[in-house]
Amino acid sequence: MADDGADDPSTDRIDGASPAVVRDALTAGDPLPGTDGFAGRVDGALVRDVLGRRPLFLDRAEPDVWSFDPTDLADPRTLPAGSVRDADGERAVWSLPDPAPAERDAALETATDAVATSTRSVDSDDLAVAFSGGVDSAVVAAGVPEAPLYVAGFEGAHDVAAAREAAAAMGRGDDLTVVEVSHADLERTVPRIVAATGRRNPMDVAIALPLYLVAERAAADGYDRLAVGQGADELFGGYAKVVDPAEDHRIDADTVRGARRETMATLPDQLERDVLALRAAGVEPVAPLLHDRVVAAALSLPGDLLVADGERKVALRAAAEGVVPDGVRTADKKAVQYGTYVSRELDRLARQDGFKRRMDDHVGRYIAALCGEDYVAPDDR
């Protein structure tokens, strides 16, 4: 899909939105013009939405050559989220709004309506749902009751047990397919994820692996699209480090809303990884909780609708009331790399292959070996 410069540079080619919507967003400087993300070329300019929900890459040596897929390019680099590249150069044109917190009841009503509208507006044709049993994926699944559910994990993994319990509570136990992960799956899949995403660090690989395996199985079963709950933790305050940011060294901000904004800043990098992994597995991701209407609503939430009395994602859980069973709505969930046991088993395989924990980045060394590459230390990458 690389653009080799042979076609008319004014030809519009946008992934995720119409050229007219992108033109209007550029003219108005509107970062949230009512889409679920976009990237591509319009009127000779390359553009990427403010949250980087659709990836776009340029070749470092030939910056006029670009693609939605980095594997098309000899030396790809990402067009930063919220940027445009045209005859005048490359620059940021959109940034996330930073509104004052809205009045509590109005903010909650707006967020609830936005979540309901976005999840119920998803077209269920050729769609499966990545379902881990947490509130994020449960809300997405409730919006598309006709779509089958998929979860991946090793035997005994938390996510598999949670998905089974949640699916049963929702009356959809028969809709759930469990993709049982094996060591052989990790060994064959790691090189594919590295090739597709360009990511080699253990955290990125471990996060992408279960997504890839779910998508691979859904694609084999004939589904072209996979609905995911991505964005919920970042938008609604789902990370532990948001609870008490003034006392958490991982966060620079000292308020809940400030910490939430910091986590949102990580979305472009995360979403690039996830989109590329899912596309490599044969499906197109659908992320209703990242639609502009949900983003705008979440940005206006006061801090006590993000975190209250240690409970995270307060507004999202409130929006899920009456939509999913209370046990699912209020349940805590582990991060995917831990809830599926993928991180644990990558560590086990690395040690079995001679990469002991006393070695710096022992899992990273194992990943390089699986890919047939020389190991490069993180600081030198």
Give the SSE map.
Layout: E1 13-15, H1 19-28, E2 39-42, E3 45-48, E4 57-59, E5 66-67, E6 76-78, E7 83-86, E8 89-92, H2 104-120, E9 127-130, H3 135-143, E10 149-153, H4 158-169, E11 176-180, H5 183-197, H6 202-220, E12 225-227, H7 232-236, H8 256-264, H9 267-281, E13 284-286, H10 292-299, E14 307-308, E15 311-312, H11 314-319, H12 326-329, H13 336-339, H14 342-352, H15 362-370
Parallel strand pairs: 9-10, 9-12, 10-11, 12-13
Antiparallel strand pairs: 1-2, 2-3, 3-7, 4-5, 4-6, 7-8, 14-15
Describe this structure in words.
The structure is a single chain. This protein has 381 residues and is an alpha/beta fold. Helix content is 40%, strand content 13%. A 5-stranded antiparallel beta sheet has the order 1-2-3-7-8, with helices on one face. A 5-stranded parallel beta sheet has the order 11-10-9-12-13, sandwiched between helices. A 3-stranded antiparallel beta sheet has the order 5-4-6, with no helix packed on it. The mean pLDDT is 95. Residues 117-245, 261-352 form the Asparagine synthetase domain.
Structure in a nutshell:
It contains 15 helices and 15 strands. The chain has 381 residues and is an alpha/beta fold.
Write out key terms for the chains shown.
about 15% strand, Rossmann fold, five-stranded antiparallel sheet, globular, about 375 residues, 15 strands, about 40% helix, five-stranded parallel sheet, single chain, alpha/beta, 15 helices
